[in-house]
Amino acid sequence: MELTVVDRDGTARALQAKSGEVLMPLLRDGIDVAIGICGGVISCGTCLVILDEGWSGHVASPSDDETDMLEALDAPPGARLACQLTLSDAVAGLRLTIAPEA
Ligand code: FES
């Protein structure tokens, strides 16, 4: 499937992904952006992404730990931690923006 990722500099890039992959490593390795400092254990918040409107219902709801981190980051609507998003075919065509560095 193809995703569209808007980088921190505003550049939109196509990213190939497969169902079952976790989003954070894909962004870190495919977009070469400095995210995922904690390795995906919900302690850094560097993997914050904002899904375009309408896509939040296509991914699993956040866990309590992810919700706590999103609140601590004062994250906007549609925000998720990329380390907690496992992709499925339901997100084919997803467009998201990597949040600015805190
Ligand atoms: S990689 Fe640290 S919170 Fe997602």
Describe this structure as you would to a colleague.
With 102 residues, the chain is of the alpha+beta class. It has a single domain (2-98), classed as Beta-grasp domain (Ubiquitin-like (UB roll), Roll), CATH 3.10.20. Helix content is 17%, strand content 21%. The protein is built from two helices and five strands. The chain has helices spanning 23-30, 64-72, and strands at 2-6, 12-16, 48-51, 79-81, 95-98. The protein has a five-stranded mixed sheet, covered by helices on one side. A hairpin with a 5-residue loop joins strand 1 (2-6) and strand 2 (12-16). The longest helix has 9 residues, at 64-72. It is globular and about 30 Å long. The N and C termini lie far apart (30 Å). The model has no long low-confidence stretch (mean pLDDT 95). Bound molecules: FE2/S2 (inorganic) cluster (FES).
Topology, element by element:
Layout: E1 2-6, E2 12-16, H1 23-30, E3 48-51, H2 64-72, E4 79-81, E5 95-98
Parallel strand pairs: 1-5
Antiparallel strand pairs: 1-2, 3-4, 3-5
The structure holds FE2/S2 (inorganic) cluster.
FE2/S2 (inorganic) cluster (FES) binds at residues 24, 36-38, 40, 42-47, 81, 83.
CA-based gyration radius: 12 Å
CATH architecture: Roll
| Residues in helices, as a percent range | 10-25%
Multimeric state of these chains?
A: single chain
- Based on secondary structure, the structural category is alpha+beta
> Strand order across the biggest sheet?
2-1-5-3-4
- The outline comes out as globular
Number of domains: 1
What is the CATH topology descriptor? Answer: Ubiquitin-like (UB roll)
Number of strands: 5
Number of helices: 2
CATH class, anyone? Alpha Beta
